[in-house]
């Protein structure tokens, strides 16, 4: 509560507890994601035992759903499909005063290829149905879908009391990931690695949106 100043006049508002804890929580989550991503990447590079489990899971899932269905789901991670969703949400948020959050979301999307492409070239992992090809780890489509749809949900969150943006982001990202694995376009670990890679980016977007709301308040 506000403490009275000299003469009974309103004084300053004491620091609000919880904000440092929120920042520390985001940093801890980002560090955990980085650690898990490093572990998975190491397993891919050394062809470790984790890849055997990954291959068995992929073999049990691939082509269990008709290809036209899984291909349509995979297309949700295409840039022409996912990027306009994020740009529309960023434009709306910027018009409502959340320019910092909008800029952070767009920057996160710009970082996706800068992070994904070098990992693809470094690991050179073959695909489930194309062992002669390389560059499947991590999944660029999953990363694009995750950042676009979850980023849009974070930008829209302050302007609606409903939870449909978050639910839609979860469904669209999950549908993309499922389509990629079921069609055989990616191994399950490729998808998991993209989620780990992009989670810190989205935590940064969330922090930018929170700081904008505090400034407005």
In terms of structural class, how would the helical and strand content be classed?
A: mainly alpha
Given as residue ranges, the uncertain stretches (5+ residues, pLDDT < 50) are: 11-17
Strand content: under 5%
Choose one word for the global shape: globular
Summarize the helix and strand pattern as letters. HHHHHHHH
| Total number of helices | 8
The mean pLDDT is 91
Distance between the first and last residues' Cα: 16 Å
The helical percent reads over 70%
Using brief descriptors, characterize the structure shown.
mainly alpha, 217 residues, 8 helices, globular
Would you give an account of this structure?
This protein has 217 residues and is an all-alpha fold. The protein is built from eight helices and no strands. It has helices at 19-46, 49-61, 67-74, 79-95, 99-123, 140-156, 164-183, 188-216. Helix 1 packs antiparallel against helix 8 (188-216), helix 4 (79-95) packs parallel to helix 6 (140-156) and helix 5 packs antiparallel against helix 6 (140-156). The longest helix is centred in the last third of the chain and has 29 residues, at 188-216. The chain is globular and about 50 Å long. The two termini are 16 Å apart.
Could you give the topology of this structure?
Elements: H1 19-46, H2 49-61, H3 67-74, H4 79-95, H5 99-123, H6 140-156, H7 164-183, H8 188-216
Helix pairs in contact: 1-8, 3-7, 4-5, 4-6, 5-6, 5-8, 6-7, 6-8
Brief rundown of the structure:
This protein has 217 residues and is an all-alpha fold. 72% of the residues lie in helices and 0% in strands.
């Amino acid at each position: 509560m506000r403490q009275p100043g000299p003469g009974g006049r309103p004084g300053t508002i004491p620091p609000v507890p919880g904000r440092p804890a929120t920042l520390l929580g985001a940093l801890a989550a980002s560090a955990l994601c980085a650690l898990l991503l490093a572990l998975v990447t190491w397993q891919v590079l050394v062809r470790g035992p984790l890849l055997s489990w990954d291959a068995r899971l992929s073999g049990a899932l691939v082509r269990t759903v008709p290809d036209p269905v899984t291909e349509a789901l995979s297309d949700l991670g295409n840039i022409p499909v996912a990027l306009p969703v994020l740009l529309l949400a960023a434009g709306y948020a910027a018009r409502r005063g959340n320019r910092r959050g909008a800029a952070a979301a767009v920057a996160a999307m710009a970082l996706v290829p800068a992070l994904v492409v070098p990992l693809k070239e470094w690991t050179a992992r073959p695909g489930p149905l194309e062992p002669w090809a390389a560059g499947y780890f991590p999944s660029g489509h999953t990363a694009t879908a995750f950042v676009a749809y979850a980023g849009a949900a974070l930008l829209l969150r302050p302007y609606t009391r409903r939870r449909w943006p978050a639910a839609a982001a979860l469904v669209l990202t999950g549908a993309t990931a499922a389509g990629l694995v079921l069609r055989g376009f990616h191994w399950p670990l490729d998808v998991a690695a993209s989620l780990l890679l992009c989670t810190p980016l989205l935590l940064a977007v969330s922090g930018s949106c929170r700081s904008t709301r505090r400034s407005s308040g």
